[in-house]
Amino acid sequence: MTDEDLTSRGPVAPLLRSAGIRPSRHRGQNFLVDRPVLSAIVSELERDRPGTILEIGAGLGTVTRALARIASRVVAVEIDRRLTPILHHTVGGLGNVDIVRQDFLEVDLAHTPGDRPLDVVGNIPYRITSAILKHLIDHRRAIRRALLLSQTDVVEKIAASPGPDGTALGVLVQAYCDISIVRHIDRRCFLPVPAVDSTLWRLSILERPKFSADAETFFRLVRVLYGARRKMIRRALRNWLSAYEIKKMFEETGIDPTRRGETLSFEALDRLALTVAPLVK
């Protein structure tokens, strides 16, 4: 294990060169090289006394080493086989770190090493942000919280959901989690420098979702409405429900059919989904 300071650009660039690695844009490889941001990550996690932390994309081991000081166990997941020798060099001597070379999207969070529930940490590539968030939601029973670095505009849309500035993905995340913004991160805190700034944000898994309808029906309704966000609700539903079913639904819920779907609260979306469910079974 090396004691090199990987939170500055000086050692990181030659470390990558010595391993013959050029960071992959396809995989969104932008390595954190900023100590205050690393400290913010550690402080945010440390206050809740983490047990096992699973790290999405361990990279060079910069964050991994810091996590190992505050957690009983760290499961460092990394898909890039080129980085495995570097990880063994930087964190291989730490007895509480398990290096797992695997695609995070194929990791069964219920059966990774360590205790449950997990805390999850990761710098999330834009290209697979949606897939990673859905994977976390699908495995939410194994998770206590997630602390993520994501592209700022994506986080802002999730934070604004449900709402005119929100997204269907944001509604999914907000349905199962309480979220909070920790801090905004300048793009110059990474090597290579990405094209956009990032945000450090926290997801806390809820004991119960913010809706009571059947999940399949609820999220199909959300996708339909957010996929036709410029249309009134009654028009957006025409490719899914008959005119009679749409009329019946609005009569039962008392919701104004001329509203746009993205203006509806969780409570209103839930009422619609509960009414739709028996019509589409």
Question: Which residues form runs of ≥5 with pLDDT under 50?
Answer: none
**CATH architecture type of the largest domain:** 3-Layer(aba) Sandwich
How many distinct folded domains? 2
CATH superfamily placement of the largest domain = Vaccinia Virus protein VP39
Mean pLDDT figure: 93
Approximately how much helix is present in the residues? 25-40%
List SSEs in N-to-C order: HEHEHEHEEHEHHEEEHHHH
Number of helices: 11
**Secondary-structure content class:** alpha/beta
Write down the CATH topology of the largest domain. Rossmann fold
Q: What is the CA–CA distance across the termini?
A: 58 Å
Task: Characterize the main sheet.
Answer: 7 strands, mixed
Number of strands: 9
Strand order of the largest sheet: 4-3-2-5-6-9-7
The value of Rg in angstroms is: 21 Å
Shape: elongated
